[in-house]
Fold:
Amino acid sequence: MDEDYWREHGVQVIKAGTLDANTAQTPGMHREAAINAARVGAQKIWAGTVKIDANAKTGAHHHGALESVIYVIRGQARMRWGEKLEYVAEAGPGDFIFVPPYVPHQEINASTDEPLECVLVRSDNEAVVVNLDIEPVEKPEEVAWIDPIHRKHTHD
Structure:
């Protein structure tokens, strides 16, 4: 290896203002790629940001065989999923959301006045988005986030 090898093939910093909007999009959201095959040579991962305007909801979609992780930076995310988007749960700043392969889902900004901003990571180097024609149910089933930090809430 020559002495400059790691300069060209080592760590790369992707500055905030340089993300690429030329990636798969879904109505109601704006995705920008930071890490993918084309930009940095990533072979097994895709990462970027997603923004959803206040009170907006995306179209129903899934991401094929990819696993997705969403980290909420700002705002309140409401996720709907299922064959008829019949399940619902919410996540706020600092929360992680895991979306398994092929799960039909919809991201909703639960806030009426604040944008929803998230970091998105997927398990392959290219963005796969399959937009679906699903009519959401009228009354989704509430599903609580239950983990060591978020206990199930009881209603009085």
About this structure: The longest strand covers residues 46-52. The chain is about 5% helix and 35% strand.
